[in-house]
Amino acid sequence: MDMKTVRSPRAAAAILAAAAVLAASGPAAAAGGPDLRFERAPVHRLDDASLQRGARNFVNYCLNCHSAKYMRFNRLTDIGLTEDQIRDNLILGDAKLGDVMNVAMRPADAKAWFGVPPPDLSVESRVRGRDWLYNYFLGFYRDPASATGWNNLVFPNVGMPHVLWTLSGTTRLVTAEFADHQSAVGAAIASKGLALVEPIPGGRFAVRTVAADVPGSMTPVEYRGFVADLVNYMEYMGEPVRNKRINLGIVVLMFLGVLFFFAYWLKREYWKDVH
């Protein structure tokens, strides 16, 4: 047998894993494909005040069209709200405290008005991720060529209009061209925000960002705080028991650590006279 061809199972697994990574990233890197760089979402699941503001933002601006059919109003007590606060400030119409966050708009009407029914947002954060959601709300810009008058850097040709534009103000698309991919990526990193690097004809690369045009009722810092609270709540809504699950896991690991000490002590006592 040719010993050069013999590899351990661990080595073979490592080679296969490396090949999978290269297969996934190689074509895009070689082709210099679109490279979307996100601004990090400044959210914290343990910040109850942020979660409460996010719940308010969600009900006022999202729940008009989007449902959250896997989230019940009474779960908001987990973030520090009382049942009276939920009834008085967050429940619209004749919904009950134990009801899920549904909308009155019928799916047939939504399809007729928007082309497709707006998606349910209960677990959108688990599908997209919080950084994607945060940058999505920052990525809208005016586009007269689109049906809604808006487009999005994160979700090109999105059917949803920018419903928060009165808060954020209007934005415009800014494009800068570079001779090579490395220079474009460097410029995108230097922007310290949402940026899209993509190839354009002639072997050049474009860096696309959004810039403020007409100010809204909030400053850019205030709007980012508004979006951070909204995304924080959407992430919480995707898995309301996550904090309890993590805390329970920590307690279990601590218990196992103490149990290991006693088990090890018992083992030494049991085997100390065995030679």
Secondary structure layout plus pairing:
Elements: H1 9-31, E1 35-37, H2 48-61, E2 68-72, H3 83-89, E3 100-101, H4 107-114, H5 124-128, H6 130-138, E4 140-142, E5 150-152, H7 165-168, E6 169-178, H8 181-190, E7 195-200, E8 204-215, H9 220-238, H10 242-271
Antiparallel strand pairs: 1-7, 2-3, 4-5, 6-8, 7-8
Helix pairs in contact: 2-9, 6-9
Descriptive overview:
With 275 residues, this protein is α+β, with helices and mostly antiparallel strands. The protein folds into two domains: 30-240, Orthogonal Bundle (Cytochrome Bc1 Complex, Chain D, domain 2); 243-275. The chain is 47% helix and 16% strand. The protein has helices at 9-31, 48-61, 83-89, 107-114, 124-128, 130-138, 165-168, 181-190, 220-238, 242-271, and strands at 35-37, 68-72, 100-101, 140-142, 150-152, 169-178, 195-200, 204-215. The strands form three sheets. The chain has a four-stranded antiparallel beta sheet with strand order 1-7-8-6. A two-stranded antiparallel ribbon has the order 2-3. It is globular. The model is unreliable at 1-31 (pLDDT under 50).
